[in-house]
Amino acid sequence: MVEIIWTDPALQELDAIAEYISLGNPAAASALVDQVFKRAERLADFPQPGRCPPELPNSVCRELVIPPCRIFYRENMGRILVLYVMREERQLRAHMLGLK
Q1: Could you tell me the pTM of the whole model?
Q2: How many Å apart are CA 59 and CA 76, to the nearest integer?
Q3: Ramachandran region of residue 60, left (φ > 0), alpha (ψ -120 to 50) or beta?
Q4: What CA–CA distance (Å, rounded) separates 90 from 31?
Q5: Alpha-carbon distances, residue 33 vs 21, 26, 71, 93, 99 (angstroms)
Q6: What is each CA distance from 69 to 10, 76, 90, 97, in whole angstroms?
Q7: Is the four-CA dihedral 45, 15, 59, 78 of positive or negative sign?
Q8: pLDDT of the chain along its 100 residues, tens only?
Q9: Is the peptide bond preceding residue 68 cis, with omega within 30 degrees of 0?
């Protein structure tokens, strides 16, 4: 089992998405956050279920899709770094993941 580390940008974006959803449906916002954290925790045992982001086909990053979110992560020295969370409809840019 590997350690899951959430970056500040990932947590901030997840919080912003949940806050927006909670304006109309607080229960749905809470359920989404729970689902995102549960799926991320599974990466500790099974780090490869995510796909390569279509926008970055040769990247070391992978993603999980949990509508309406995309969760980007990568393995690094026996750890899983959750790099970024964003809404599905947004377009991914390499700088969002700290990539050049």
Answers
A1: 0.88
A2: 13
A3: alpha
A4: 21
A5: 11, 11, 12, 23, 25
A6: 11, 22, 10, 15
A7: negative
A8: 789 999 999 999 999 999 999 999 999 999 999 999 999 999 888 877 788 888 888 888 899 999 999 999 998 888 999 999 999 888 777 677 776 5
A9: yes
Distance in angstroms (rounded) separating the CA atoms of residues 76 and 2: 10
| Strand boundaries in the chain, DSSP class E | 3-6, 62-66, 69-76, 79-87
Between CA 17 and CA 39 the distance in angstroms is: 17
In this structure, how many other beta carbons lie within 10 angstroms of the beta carbon of residue 29? 18
Dihedral sign for Cα atoms in the order 9, 11, 12, 18: positive
How far apart CA 25 and CA 23 sit, in angstroms, is 6
Neighbours of 5 (CB within 10 A): 13
